[in-house]
Amino acid sequence: MLQIQENVSLKKFNTFGIDANARYFAEISHEDELVELFADPQWLTTNRLVMGGGSNMLLVKDFEGLIIRMNIRGIEHRISQNDVYVEVGGGEVWNDLVNFCVDRNYAGMENLSLIPGSVGASPIQNIGAYGVELKDVFASCRAFEIATGTFRTFTKEDCKFGYRESVFKIELAGQYIIVSVKFHLSLKANINLKYGAIEQELANRGITEPTIEDVSKVVSHIRVSKLPDPSTIGNAGSFFKNPVIGDEQFRIIQQQFPDVVNYPAGEGLHKLAAGWLIEQCGWKGKVVGNTGTWKNQALVLVNHGGATGEEVYSLSSQIIDTVYTKFGVTLQREVNIIG
Where along the chain is the active site annotated (predicted)? Predict the structure, then answer.
């Protein structure tokens, strides 16, 4: 029987460790519980938020509505020649899935190691790291339509994936709840060493012909060296998107800052490293009240203890302002602001 709790603290459910309360709280462990939940018309009109691992959000105040925490589990896999199809419950921890695949030599996810969060949230954000995005391994997802109480399967084309974007963040925002995701992997590894940091760390380890396990370990090592562990200090990983700008604006910036860190982003486009921009503005490792930026990566905002969501948001606004003043580039928050 589905239980609806009242006045629940969300501190342990968000990786920033923000102590905000939810007026109502429901944990979903099976698809049928979603049908049961929304059979009650009260919840169709109540403000609501779907939560997985709570790793890509900032709660700026108490949530005066219904929190739906997705906890549907299970991993099933099927092999057809060199193709591997893995179907996963939305409540599974993302990195547990990556480890499951790497351990079985199912290639494609290794560059996405140690990204925090749940599987169900991954298509919404089109998560990505080190030259790979979710869309590169995505086959389809199954989602519950709140308005009709029915389920629908979304193909890759249906999802309209973009850089940290999908149809679930734009035109269908708030209309569907992802219950499971199917991935298309391979028994034949196509090792992606697009990012120099991976190549360098492999070289440091004397590895010249890396396996997907090698890549996963190296990516995990790099992430740990740069990013703080949410279990020891509150954070949501990268707080800002890497901005994409055109040729003309890039030339202007490069003339003034020849060592600007950038990557190709399509014809006539350049992706700038947001962490580098923030660091050049003097923010790296800076402490502001109970919050600040991480000492090893300026792209990460942290809760040093007792910070409110409003404090973290205020800090992010100051960073956006100073980066724009110095570079003429407007940073966008990657973390979802709730409240």
Answer: 164, 238 (proton donor), 334
